[in-house]
């Protein structure tokens, strides 16, 4: 099937993974344009894509609010492409990757602002697992010393019983956060989507067990020999430092496989998430911007 050409959009399906990945492989791994992410964070099945001047345009559900946002990735005729999108009634381009901004020939013709809420956090797996930060090392050691029979295992996403433990933990996590049933259900749909396509991508599910009970997990995608994308991570909320240990165990597993970096995605402007991810001391950020018409 031919790729959609703007202004035509196509709703993203599993069969589109190769098309999207084939394009995005030429760029740093920005989370919003990751094919797996586009499929999983798509409860309403409305996420769509198109191509304009050999640039990828996406229309996706706003992560936190009602409605949809648009973004563009590419380096070809960017000024013309942005103006074309504006002419079609799109008022703002959000989460626009820095590589795209750097390709604008006449930046003074647009309003361009850093979109810090959408910056991707990039963790160097080898540096993180050295535990050079005294505060992180202290918390990791406390967690290890406080929990006997602690194990890290690779979760088999083809095993129904193991999948059930993930789903149950996600529900427990959501309820501990006082999330609504609708929010918990939305998380379930997203995680279940990842599980359903896990055999179509190079997935890696890491589980933390205490006395053979799952207390935390991460669901990740190995993008290539050096990069991974962290898609989901949940842990028992009242088990102190469990989420940090999940991150540590995941990075340790990735480093053992020769993976140098993991994109743990954005914080969406949520203060708690920003504090947590900043505390991991990212190696750097994949920066993104908002673009609008100049008044």
Automatic annotation (TrEMBL):
InterPro entries: Acyl_CoA_acyltransferase (IPR016181), LPG_synthase_C (IPR024320), UCP018688 (IPR016732). Signal peptide: none annotated. It comes from the Bacteria. It holds the Pfam family LPG_synthase_C. Residues 112-290 form the Phosphatidylglycerol lysyltransferase C-terminal domain. This is DUF2156 domain-containing protein. It comes from candidate division WWE3 bacterium.
